[in-house]
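User: Predict NAD(P)-binding protein's structure from this.
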Amino acid sequence: MQLSVWAFFKEQWSTAQPVVTADLAGKTVVVLGANTGLGFEASKHFATMNPGRLILACRNQSKGQAAVEKLKADTGYAKAELWLVDLADFASVKNFTDRFVQDGGRLDIIVENAAVGPGVTYGATKDGWETSLQVANLSTPLVALLLLPIMLKTAIEHNTTPRIVVVSSNVHYWTTLTKEVLESSAILETLGSEKYCTSKNMTERYHVTKLLNVFFFRALNERLAPTTPIVVDAVCPGYCYSELRRELSGVSAAVDWLTEKCLAFSTERGSRQLVYAALAHQDRPETLRGEYISISAVREVGDFVLSPEGAKAQDHIWDEMVEILSKVDPRVRDIVAKHLVSPA
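Assistant:
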């Protein structure tokens, strides 16, 4: 499938769907990037469903605490917890997941809402990776993999089907990987190198990170045995008012401002898609297993993803990612070996 400009316009002008609801009593929900934007609005929706625990995973203490207090004021839910995690820092991610392991609690839903907006220039993290690539395509998978055993334990002990929701975007339809990247023996390393991250290539970086999000959720789903009681899906929130694009300037900022006025959803409306991916089809959760969701419906992913070239890249990136993350935390290799299978 390819998404035409006209189809994009039609989606943006479509009628808003109501928020999907469910009884979350006793369940634990984690939202990454929860202090602002889509993450905060989704957290507010979850809060109205009385979860046993609602964990707002945020990078900044003061902004995170302000979000917890605003959420309580807006919804009356007083049990939200602030947990700090900086996805641009592998040590912070490990501390976050270690805390969950030591906590010993259940984990029913994790919404992986993490990205660095378009218009960024090259900048490296303390771990030596280009920042947006580490945040969206290394740390996001690291969280999912390190918490996978807890979700499996939750499924068995509570006879439920936990969900991992990866927030992607329809912009993945409009990008591919360059020949230079596809022919590289180390795709992620090439994408993350300062040499590759020229001004020209960085203009496509946001699109590429969202494409890699699609590769990740599909690769993870393919490696979960069909009987594994976990749903992994990905979701596009639509084109929304967002702080992600605050770094845009000049002509890009002007075009974005005009496009927002004509087409953008409110952030709250966009967050309904995250909730849909996390809660829809409670009676038949397998309906959303391995699916890509947009406008509250399952959609086929982009042609490049489905092509032989894309499939080869997806497997290559998965293997490289596991190798990289296993060096960050050796538990990754053990979790992959114990809980995942070779794709069919």
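The chain has one domain: 5-13+24-239+271-336.
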